[in-house]
Amino acid sequence: MTFLAIANFKSNKTAEEVTTWLKAVTPTPNMVVAPSFPHLSLCHCVTAAQDVSPFPPGSYTGAVSAKVLKELGVSYCIVGHSERRRYFHETATDVAAKVRELVEVDITPLICMEQEQITSQFAVLDADLYDKCYFCFEPSGDIGGTVAAGDEEILIAKKQIEYFVKDARFIYGGSVNRDNAAQLLKLRLSGFLIATASLDPDNYQDVLGIVSHAA
After folding, report:
1. Which of 2, 138, 139, 154 has the greatest number of beta carbons closer than 10 A?
2. Burial class (CB in 10 A: 0-12, 13-18, 19+), 184
3. What is the dihedral of CA 130, 134, 138, 143, to 10 degrees?
């Protein structure tokens, strides 16, 4: 199983900046890039969308369906990010609907959860789709800084998720960078969700190097 190093640009970077970033990074098999919707077509690499509509194609103005993402070559999609839950008031039920839409078109969901959301999120997820997903623990208090959550906190969340999904594909997100990536890898993760550090191509490239060396 390939370890995923997902660069989440959020709503940062213009088209020119995305192009410059891509030229500065040497791809590895671990590289996944999650730009804004309009820039997905600029990324000639493995891509993740940052969100998807919870509805099928139809009369949903402003929504981007899973089918459209598939046409753009998207392989993964982030759902349930803490910023979506906080600023856009998305619920666990909304996230579950997005997961169903993604799996229907063979896009792999990357389901983000804080520790207190794990039980309620699994309560509405379809159990037969568990093995189609990655599960990302991202404590909101550790997002956007330089210090990741402690090992014990991460391992507790991992154990909680594995209560529902044995051998779950478990990702950590929250201030992952070149200074802490090697330590985090010791926790037997399946990937990193990297935001702030990924905006700097040199920092992201260093994380890729650390991941490749550990493989």
Report:
1. 138
2. buried
3. -150
